[in-house]
Amino acid sequence: xxxxxxxxxxxxxxxxxxxxxxxxxxxxxxxxxxxxxxxxxxxxxxxxxxxxxxxxxxxxxxxxxxxxxxxxxxxxxxxxxxxxxxxxxxxxxxxxxxxxxxxxxxxxxxxxxxxxxxxxxxxxxxxxxxxxxxxxxxxxxxxxxxxxxxxxxxxxxxxxxxxxxxxxxxxxxxxxxxxxxxxxxxxxxxxxxxxxxxxxxxxxxxxxxxxxxxxxxxxxxxxxxxxxxxxxxxxxxxxxxxxxxxxxxxxxxxxxxxxxxxxxxxxxxxxxxxxxxxxxxxxxxxxxxxxxxxxxxxxxxxxxxxxxxxxxxxxxxxxxxxxxxxxxxxxxxxxxxxxxxxxxxxxxxxxxxxxxxxxxxxxxxxxxxxxxxxxxxxxxxxxxxxxxxxxxxxxxxxxxxxxxxxxxxxxxxxxxxxxxxxxxxxxxxxxxxxxxxxxxxxxxxxxxxxxxxxxxxxxxxxxxxxxxxxxxxxxxxxxxxxxxxxxxxxxxxxxxxxxxxxxxxxxxxxxxxxxxxxxxxxxxxxxxxxxxxxxxxxxxxxxxxxxxxxxxxxxxxxxxxxxxxxxxxxxxxxxxxxxxxxxxxxxx
Length: 588
Ligand code: PEP
Ligand code: MG
Known about the structure:
single chain, alpha/beta, Glucose Oxidase, domain 1, Enzyme I, Chain A, domain 2, eight-stranded mixed beta sheet, 16 strands, 47% helix, binds phosphoenolpyruvate, binds magnesium ion
């Protein structure tokens, strides 16, 4: 707290774990220790090897202790990360190599550890084993620990985080995050690097700790003790906010806490209107680690599992077995509740590590989602086989993204059937036949929805894309973000057409785009007739509260009023005002 307070600063990062938090910054200094580099005389070699052995043993003991501490409190098994670190300490690739460098090259142990770590990281880049490849950061973590121990430095001191602090770090290893969140209730986490898919983000989500990652140079510019307000959904960080900003922030915090409290009260109540219309509320997930939060918030199933996240940030795709385990884990955890797994939506902004260099002129309209899968058949079949095998372990619903015509759906289904026959021939266990649906997220699919119903078992509307394509606005482009209007009359008419087509054929119709979880739109979606809404877990309670407070007729009256207007601004004003009148704060 010795440094002078900053003036007001704002940072925009990636919202990695939802929730709002206010607290004083605790800046973790996780910068690499400076490694001394020394040449050894012949007689110094033996003592250096002993020194290395002692550091290895000490590191092992420290990790074992940390793991025990975690195991006592942690239901998510994050202690496994530390076990992996311990295994590295015993791995000949590390231990023997370091010894060799000390003996052969006559260099000190610290230097040898760094050189071996660099080599290991380089190798892990190229081996197709997810466990090591994804954990290059863990090699650094283990090497840092060894070097600190060799130098007689205190190792786990930085984890003495004061309660209710906002932890700010350049980077935070998953182990650091898991240990820290076990020890103390931190208010939030900010890191300079990382993305939605980084393991630290996952640990934060699983722990329901608001987090913003990829926040640029936040850790350099935020001083210890600065007051930090953090919005983990929008990815916003306000440092030393003004009185007015603080008041507004406290208000959002109050509302957020109220919503969370309501979640605990209503998690097992059905989302049913006062006149008995039942809507199913499901959760959207990217990783299995989000399941505890999904269940705690009362999701009745998974409405969207974005499987492509298993493929990002890595050089080779996950194997069939690895995928099978991931899907099975989710299906089993949901214990018979429906789990809607979407096949790969790669391409566009979600480019796998291997293809980062391949730039398309217009990625949103390019080779993405089902098009990408149909162009990379082996990749697609591997996923389909994994899904078919996993179907034996729960209530699977499969859906294909970005379908734009019936031929694509037929093609995708025929790949699925080919995989089913292939597995059947080899006697591989599979579950019973499961529903196969499509995401309706292109205007093309929406306008032939009445034909697609014949060959799709359900629809799930992806408004994030449907709006981008309907209104011709790139959802990544900030310049046109002002035109992104879920209540545009053309969007409402499109949605109406899709729902009517589904109802006409008696197939379920869901929505899993962001529009589904925003309480401002709940009455509109209820009136349109959606059977299911799927959203981020934390949005469920608020949407449920609104549904339980109204009748379908009431909602229909609002929709009728809205669709009688013309401009998006008029409709927005009308719906916001009506929602405000009925539910006061929700419309903000
Ligand atoms: C959507 O487009 O609304 C959707 C849910 O898919 P994604 O956001 O993953 O593109
Ligand atoms: Mg989409």
